[in-house]
Amino acid sequence: MPNTMVQLLDSKLTIWFQYEKMARKHITNVKRNKANGSGSGTRPTLFRHLVDSDLPASEMHDDRLCQEAQSILGAGSFPTGAALTFISYQLIANERIRSTLKKELGSVMAEYPKKIPSWSQLEQLPYLCGVIKEGLR
C-alpha cells in the first residue's frame, strides 16, 4: 500500500514516514562520503555506525539500514515522549507534586537562565529523580 494511502488511513503514521525519509537521506549521504573517501566528519553518528557495521554485504542495502535506523531512533524517541507526556500531565493535574517539585528546584534554578544547573546538581534532587523514575515506570 502506498505511503500516502497509509497516511490518509492513519495520520499518526506520518512521523514514521518522516523518520524513514530522514534516515534514508543520512544513510545515502554517509554511503556517498564513504565511497568518495571524503569521510563524513569526526563526530560519530548512528548512520555512520550502521554503514560501517559488520553486517554482511548482502544486508547493507538502504532499505535494511533505514529500517535499523528507524528502529533505533523509534526505540529512543517514542518511549521518551510518552514518559514526558505522562510527567507533564501529572505536574499539571496534581498541585502537590507540582509545588513540591517547584520548591525542590528553587535552589538550583535560582539564577536560571543566567546560570544553567549541571546534570550533577539535578541528579542530587531526590524528588526530581523520583518524578522522572515514576514517569519512566
Protein model, in words:
The chain has 137 residues and is an all-alpha fold. Helix content is 72%, strand content 0%. It is extended and about 55 Å long.
Q: What characterizes the major β-sheet?
A: none
- How many whole angstroms does the radius of gyration measure? 21 Å
What does the overall shape look like?
extended
Q: Structural class of the secondary elements?
A: mainly alpha
Total of DSSP H or I helical runs spanning 4+ residues: 7
Number of strands: 0
| Overall mean pLDDT | 86
Strand content: under 5%
Encode the helix/strand succession as letters.
HHHHHHH
Give the low-pLDDT segments: none
What's the end-to-end separation, in Å? 36 Å
What share of the residues lie within helices?
A: over 70%
Give the structure's gist in a few sentences.
By secondary structure, the protein is mainly α. It has helices at residues 3-9, 14-36, 46-51, 62-93, 95-108, 119-123, 126-136.
Structural key phrases:
single chain; 137 residues; mainly alpha; 7 helices; 72% helix
Blueprint of the fold:
Blueprint: H1 3-9, H2 14-36, H3 46-51, H4 62-93, H5 95-108, H6 119-123, H7 126-136
Helix pairs in contact: 2-4, 4-7
